[in-house]
Design goal:
Elements lengths: L1 E5 L6 E7 L9 H12 L7 H4 L4 E5 L1 E2 L2 E2 L4 E6 L7 H4 L8 H4 L11 H8 L5 H7 L4 H17 L3 E9 L2 E2 L6 H7 L12 H16 L6 E8 L15 H10 L4 E6 L17 E4 L3 E4 L7 E2 L2 E2 L4 E7 L11 E2 L6 E2 L11 H23 L5 H16 L2
Antiparallel strand pairs: 1-2, 2-6, 3-6, 4-5, 7-8, 7-9, 9-15, 10-15, 11-12, 13-14, 16-17
Helix pairs in contact: 1-7, 1-11, 5-6, 7-11, 10-11
This protein binds flavin mononucleotide and ligand EPS.
The ligand C=C(O[C@@H]1CC(C(=O)O)=C[C@@H](OP(=O)(O)O)[C@H]1O)C(=O)O binds next to helix 7.
Amino acid sequence: MRYLTAGESHGKQLTTIIEGLPAQMPLLREDINESLLRRQKGYGRGKRMQIEKDLVEIMSGVRHGYTLGSPVSLVIHNDDFKHWTDIMGEDPISDDTKLRRIVTKPRPGHADLNGALKYGHRDMRNVLERSSARETAARVAAGAVAKTLLRHLDIEICGYVKEIAGIKATDQPTMTMIEKVGVSEASPVRTLDKNVEQQMMDAIDQAKKDGDSIGGVTEVCVEGMPAGIGSYVHYDRKLDSRIAGSVVSINAFKGVEFGIGFEAARKNGSEVHDEILWDKDHGYYRKTNRLGGFEGGMTTGMPLIIKGIMKPIPTLYKPLQSVDIETKEPFHASIERSDSCAVPAAAVVMEHVVAFELAKAILEQFPHDQFPKLKQALESYRNEIRCF
Ligand SMILES: Cc1cc2nc3c(=O)[nH]c(=O)nc-3n(C[C@H](O)[C@H](O)[C@H](O)COP(=O)(O)O)c2cc1C
Ligand SMILES: C=C(O[C@@H]1CC(C(=O)O)=C[C@@H](OP(=O)(O)O)[C@H]1O)C(=O)O
């Protein structure tokens, strides 16, 4: 299974095409919309999120609530496009640079300058429109389809905020806790401790007041993955490495940790590795889960615990210095709008990119064109490894 996305941030729409889904899998528009709406929430977002109301249109590959086995194509319309029709339309436009809103001032921390150098664009709008994190809406749509597949295989996944600007969530949530607490409309920074949540929101307010931005740490927890998904035989079949790649591919993500993560470098082996136990009901399991559910590029059957590290948003109201590519003069740009913190939204994005990698790995290991057969195959495998 794979997916592609297309679309510019202020263009007409975002498109996602997913290929390789089995037929006869239940899939509803609501499954995807719920994820899209969660991604739009989050304290610290800018004005753009007040313009957009992300809703998916399923254009192909689904009939009467079930997949057909043919490519699934999904569309999300950009409501902001109506303000950009001339600038983002496909028809030729006047040479008047003001009218075209040509971008010649690259923003530090964005793809602007490197993208311009690579593709030869003297108008960096041609870079920023695609490099924008608006594209993560299309990725969440793909991930929501993958999450639906996982859910029907009794695998649950959730992403939440672990840390914002150095303020840490105090709890280690389990799936039951996540379901109970959820992600509320008013304060989608997911932590059980209201006090910590308030501190995070205060830090976001302060950053905004200072014209600055902040980053943080997101975490994804997965329960129900059987042991032995992924492989140790080749670098590109190691599931932890694929997940790491997909997490770092999210805009502004600069690192990944599994389980205790970088802490492992400072501990002895006896404090890091997870001892193996067995009982009749559960089969093999671990006394601890410090390695976050991965060994040798494969799942261990324990919950997967994955952290993503997000840098602060690069566009600042108190802007950094840069150089105009036409005049070569230094400037301090003024900006119109930006998020000051997108960590809560990014936690939802991370949940969905991880979901896609997991669903893909399962389909590689149990290749079935019909979803009921995939479900059956996974169930037999679960029984097999329990008694192994
Ligand atoms: C959900 C989300 C929202 C974002 N919103 C903004 C934003 O409003 N302003 C901004 O400058 N960067 C924003 N970013 C980050 C930039 O898209 C990203 O830093 C930039 O494309 C450069 O990519 P890199 O940081 O991965 O190198 C956002 C990222 C995510 C995941
Ligand atoms: C549109 C989204 O995020 C955008 C990501 C983004 C960036 O530079 O990455 C910049 C902002 O967009 P704009 O320049 O239109 O204000 C964010 O709102 C979204 O998440 O759907």
